[in-house]
Amino acid sequence: SGIERLGDMIAEARTIVPFTGAGISTECGIPDFRSPGGIWTRNRPIPFDEFVASQSARDESWRRRFAMEEVFAAAKPGRGHRALASLYRAGKVPAVITQNIDNLHQASGFAPKHVIELHGNTTYARCIGCGQDYPLDWVKRRFDGDGAAPNCTACDEPVKTATISFGQMMPDEEMQRATALSQACDLFIAIGSSLVVWPAAGFPMMAKRAGARLVIINREPTEQDDIADLVIHHDIGETLGPFVGN
Ligand code: OAD
Ligand code: ZN
């Protein structure tokens, strides 16, 4: 079966790089983007230039974030996160590359420096001008007090979740580290991503071209199934559950 072959490939690999998308966190209660009921089926994304230009776009962006607060605050790592953390502790996984913003890889036991967050992190806020970080509580208090999304106390530019929006620059260091990891592994496992958002979606192919074996685990077919060595169209928790160790 697919899971047995995956087990063999994991056993044979020296360096495994997992690459995760929203599908690994759906069993934790966090919706993905493109499945029925997903975030982008309910709300249009707010592009970065709109966030910068418009107070009402910033207010709407923060209202959406606060509406999700209980979901993010309650979420615990799932079987997929825990399986990857086991392989990390066993020394097989040097780091995880993720498109996710939910902090669940860190919560499962990865050191923060070993979570390469391509799209940032939604559990804190950051000034888009000077880069000053703020806790979400600070934003919430200011929002509730003024009825509007706040600006930075240091430089007066808008404060945003520490995530990457469409049209926003990708983080340089993370892109470089993800490139190096993709090219240095012998097994690359893409988990729970539709693989349609670039440049993130380029890493599986980059790994494959550099000689790694490529596994894709996703309920639905993805854009890149045809280049994979193994495709498992199955639930992530069920597929990776057997790899949860100590
Ligand atoms: P998507 O919503 O595009 O894809 C998630 C995939 O996970 C879907 O193909 C689902 O079928 C699959 N899936 C969901 N739950 C699953 C489960 N329990 N088991 C197996 N498969 C499951 O999410 P991403 O590919 O992560 O970026 O989205 C990529 C980027 O698009 C995000 O990082 C975000 C978004 O716009 C930005 O906003 C910049
Ligand atoms: Zn600032």
Tell me what the structure shows.
This protein is of the alpha/beta class. Helix content is 37%, strand content 16%. The strands form two sheets. The chain has a six-stranded parallel beta sheet, sandwiched between helices. The chain has a three-stranded antiparallel beta sheet with strand order 5-4-6. Helix 9 (172-184) packs parallel to helix 10 (203-209). The chain starts with a helix and ends in a 6-residue tail after the last helix. The model has no long low-confidence stretch (mean pLDDT 97). The structure holds 2'-O-acetyl adenosine-5-diphosphoribose (OAD) and zinc ion. Residues 127, 129-130, 132, 152, 154-155, 157 line the site of zinc ion.
Percent strand: 15-25%
Q: Oligomeric form of this entry? A: single chain
- What is the tally of beta strands? 9
Radius of gyration: 18 Å
Helix fraction bin: 25-40%
Question: How is the secondary structure organized here?
Answer:
Blueprint: H1 2-12, E1 16-20, H2 39-42, H3 48-53, H4 55-67, H5 69-74, H6 79-89, E2 96-98, H7 104-107, E3 115-117, E4 120-127, E5 133-134, H8 136-146, E6 159-163, H9 172-184, E7 187-191, H10 203-209, E8 213-217, E9 230-232, H11 236-240
Parallel strand pairs: 1-2, 1-7, 2-3, 7-8, 8-9
Antiparallel strand pairs: 4-5, 4-6
Helix pairs in contact: 9-10
The structure holds 2'-O-acetyl adenosine-5-diphosphoribose and zinc ion.
2'-O-acetyl adenosine-5-diphosphoribose (OAD) binds next to loops.
